[in-house]
Amino acid sequence: MIQRFQSNFQFKSTFFEYFFFDYPKSRLKKMLSPFLLGLMLSFAFQPHNYTILGFLSLLLFYRHFEKRMMYSAENAFSIGYWYGFGYFAGGLYWIAYALHIDWLKYAVLIPLAALGIPAVLALGLGLSTFVAARLKAFGRLVPLLGFVLTWSLFEWVKGHLLTGFPWLNMAEIWLSGDVMIQNLAFMGPYGLGLLTLLLFVLLYGVIFFERVYRSKFFIAFLALSTVLLINGKVHLTQEPQRQYTNFDLVIVQPNILQIHKWAPDRLRFNIDTLVRLSQQSRLQPQLGTKYKPKIFIWPEASVPYLIQSGTAFSKYITQPLEPGDYLILGAPRHDALTDRHFNSLLVLDHEGQILKTYDKTHLVPFGEYVPYRNVLPSFVEQLAPGDHEYSPGEGIKTLDVPGIPTFSPLICYEAIFTQEVLTETNGERPKWLLNLTNDGWYLDSAGIYQHLHLTRMRAIEEGIPLVRVVYRGISAVFDGNGRMTSQIPFDEAQGLVTQLPRSLENRTFYSIYGSSLYVLMLLLLGLFMLCLTIYSIKSCRKVSL
Questions:
Q1: Is position 538 annotated as part of the catalytic site?
Q2: Catalytic residue among 158, 261, 360, 431
Q3: CA distance 481 to 465
Q4: Are residues 224 and 304 in the same domain?
Q5: For 285-297, what is each residue's pLDDT tens digit?
Q6: How many structural domains is the chain composed of?
Q7: Which domain range does residue 80 map to?
Q8: Does 7 fall in a domain?
């Protein structure tokens, strides 16, 4: 039996070494090994949250890359590229689900959405291994640091270039808990992502570097992880949870399928569903309790019609309201003077009068408008229904409505862009963030959970509560530490009565200084690499002499 176990172990070990560590002889293995390891990395993110798999993937991949780099640096870009392709294909497959509204019409775009986007994003990780290979003459640590430094810079570029796509950044592997992710309040997503990659570097040194260096790497790994844990824990517990008690929020999630949302024969039923859920929410408070004003919140584009003040329709949708109540909803808006259409948020009172409006600023390319319209062929159109494209609004602003704490409205994926979710008015910041969105495009996929927790990150960074109301998906309320205080689960229709948390009493470091700490860490890491490089060059000269 012992011999059989040893034989099996030897076979598995040999297979593992051959598949992941040995230099591949075939072209298929050159692609397949890093692709599978990249696919493993995607399981560290929502909704799987296997953080340990993320670190294991990084360790195995870089060891595989380092072994290959010993033989040839010519294909360094290729191995990083296929690792990135597996990573983004496994984490962003759900983008293709948006085409389910008409599979036949958009069939040709499915491979582009499912594979084309990962293929482009993978260029960043190909560049990371390319840089590492060019530094291999300076020892083992300099290429490793060059790899993570380039990766971190790629994440920043990915979040800002063109319209920006800050999805699947390394900081997000901590979203499964409440402690480590609190470090967003000090260094933001790019700073925490860089420190996450540095934890991988130190762990790699503990396992794979020469024995003489392992204790130093272990002490550094223990010190950095301890600092991040303690810092996160202190920030999480330093302020008690506080809520507004003089009014209620009513979050309305209709849970209507995307294919039914704009169907002409379903439009009236959809509106009635929102009104009915709003009315039912009034039955939730216990009998005998004092009535409190309510803020009813409907999701993005919940009303498919143009709304005007005081019309029969505006009075119909506000019928659940009493004096002192408000209805906040998403709806299209048309500016007759400029003939422009907007994806907007409206605030109505109990008489159906429009008090405030906000027009979405950061539009979804190919979703709400077609970029480079003068270059692309005319048959390319946006996914959003209608025969017109949407125009961007004037920018993020704070809405001030009597009886409501000031808030910053965010529509759809506007809430995923760090440092772009609020603006100060006369030195005052909004008291809460409101995100109206719709994840019904993505069926029951990872995109729903990734989008939910990406918006949660903004609450932690700013120290401001965030209310998220979804047409179909997961509606939730997060406090200033990113803790979920209430939610409507996926695939449920409900009008939930809840309370709004208060902002943290003290502003976060990140909300004041932005990415300054991240820039400082980049500079220090670059300086450290420069010192190691100079030391390596001097050592080589001494040996040659």
A1: no
A2: 360
A3: 8
A4: no
A5: 555 567 789 999 9
A6: 2
A7: 20-238+515-544
A8: no
